[in-house]
Amino acid sequence: MFFISFCKRTFQKVGIGFVLISIVSFHIIIISLNTFFIKYAMNQIENDARLINTTGKIRSGVQRVVKLEFAQKDYKSDIKRVDEIFQKILDKSNYNLDSLTMQNYLEMITLLSSNWEELKEALKIYSDDHSNKNQELVLLKSEEFWFLSENLMNTLSTIATQKTYIFKFSFIIFAFEFFLILFVIFIINKFIRKKLEILSRVDPLTNAYNRNVYNEYMENELEAFLRYKNSVAFIIFDIDFFKNINDTLGHKAGDTVLKDLVNLIAVNIRKTDKLFRIGGEEFVILVKNLDKSNLENLTDKLRKKVQEYDFGLDKNITISLGATFFKDNDTKESIFKRADEALYCSKKDGRNKVTIY
């Protein structure tokens, strides 16, 4: 909950566009790093596979040499082939190895190469003298070579297997990315829905409730009044000569007046009172639990506050107000009509006035 609240505050402070760009950039970085790790792992495993394959060729080549010697057949080309493989494999520039693989592999392949030289010497001795003793020496060196090559291949297999952790790590990153994207989509969706809900209920210029909310509140308050007979006052007001402000000073100045007016009214009514913008410069306030004397005091206070407020223009801004109470058998239309007639009376009497019917 704290993280969700933090995300909402972040959206509000820096804007959803900046947050989205940051999130996309973060995902691109993570995916790029993950791709690098996967490529690195694939290269390393490919190199390890080449080493295992090459070691297998050496072992099979040595077996063939020993077999051909005992069969008294020519095997010089086979020895040459094994020597070439050893020479190539001992040249570490032919492989892209990490330090751990290089250290383990080169130590063991060097030992295997030394054993191969000993085996070749034993084969040469046996070739000159086919005695049982020399044959046993060849078999002994051959078994030593087999044992060393087997250990080498097992070591390479173990190293290659251990490197699969990179794929596991990459999978975890992809899983994290997936759930993070879902979470971000959830947060953004919630934020946007809330924004849309606010926009559907609030006048975008003044932040007062709009006409849709006015109609909703009127229905609810009228229903509650008819049931509980609680006191509800309806105040309607508009700005005197507002058209002249737009015509002489421009719509930007008019918009500023509207925003300042709403802010001024909002701080001079209770939190339970509801302020609506129902037209261009026309507003409604719904007020509960006031008698006529309190309503007169409130409306006159609002009128004076506006008259005394400095809107930054070269002339004073005033408002005319009309007010009424909900009555039995009232409808939304009858309430509005009665308050509007009171407003008309205030304007007819010279404006900057309050009339209560």
From TrEMBL:
It catalyses: 2 GTP = 3',3'-c-di-GMP + 2 diphosphate. One of its GO terms (biological process) is cell adhesion involved in single-species biofilm formation. InterPro entries: Diguanylate_Cyclase, GGDEF_dom, Nucleotide_cyclase, Rev_trsase/Diguanyl_cyclase. GO terms for molecular function: diguanylate cyclase activity. The chain crosses the membrane at residues 14-37, 165-188. It is an enzyme of class 2 (transferase). SUPFAM superfamilies: Nucleotide cyclase. PROSITE patterns: GGDEF. GO terms for cellular component: plasma membrane. Residues 230-357 form the GGDEF domain. Coiled coil: none annotated. Keywords: Membrane, Transmembrane, Transmembrane helix. Its EC number is 2.7.7.65. This is diguanylate cyclase.
